[in-house]
């Protein structure tokens, strides 16, 4: 776990330098968007840290994960004087954010006391790790990783909306931008289906446990492994990464540059999900006897060719 954290923080420090090297000559409007977004991300990170320390609930960043990108991208659209391309990107991010906020809220994550609500179970598991066996160590982890790293990442994944502009461009929407938008929406639909399948499975499993009838497959395994979850182990994670990797191509479609500084957010997000999946699966293997076999037979994020063929041959 410590290696993962060090890798993520190192990447966060190095990637922006690479991004600046790739695009040193941004126009003033783009710099305005970058400065506004950067200051906003740092401010939100500080608030999340203080609230987490005062309440003991470290899911403050989780609460705003699906909300902050909407604010960032709509502010970019405002700075651009609402050019059509910026509006399209803002609408796409809004659909993503509304869906994710709904999915998070139905699990009890939000409360009229905005600092309260459900905390991600993984934080409590991580508190038991010897690496964080003191209040000071946990507070430093909360400061640098939970609050600041994740909030900066939330801002960085919206950078393609800043880079999707070039000098003298009117911001009109072409077929390339529409193709990117449609692809994002396809992955959004897949993510929605995956989350709903997990929601249905867990609700039925817990209903059976309450009624003393949890004696039949597939619920006795304890974890969702049907539908999209039979194709890959984390279809929701895979879709989330695909959404923001695809979002990067808004900048490619607008500028024609296949490699630009806004790729930093997507790269860091992929690294984060690798570490998150490792941690989650470690917990699941200890909790469910059949999970190790599930890992052995089912890919993590990307289905293999044999898996795809077996699905279509059913």
Q: Given the C-alpha coordinates, what overall shape results?
A: globular
* Rounded Rg: 21 Å
- Summarize model confidence as the mean pLDDT: 86
Q: Structural class per helix/strand content?
A: mainly alpha
Number of separate structural domains: 1
Distance between the termini: 39 Å
- Provide the succession of SSEs: HHHHHHHHHHHHH
Quaternary form:
single chain
Please tally the helical runs, counting DSSP H or I stretches of 4 or more residues: 13
Low-confidence segments, ≥5 residues, pLDDT <50? none
Helix content: 55-70%
Number of β-strand runs: 0
Strand content: under 5%
Major sheet attributes = none
Write the layout of secondary structure elements.
Blueprint: H1 2-22, H2 28-55, H3 60-64, H4 68-79, H5 84-105, H6 121-127, H7 135-156, H8 160-163, H9 175-211, H10 235-255, H11 263-287, H12 291-297, H13 305-312
Provide a descriptive summary of the structure in words.
- The chain is an all-alpha fold and 314 residues long.
- The protein has one domain (2-312).
- It has helices spanning 2-22, 28-55, 60-64, 68-79, 84-105, 121-127, 135-156, 160-163, 175-211, 235-255, 263-287, 291-297, 305-312.
- The longest helix is centred in the middle third of the chain and has 37 residues, at 175-211.
- 31% of the residues are buried.
- It contains 13 helices and no strands.
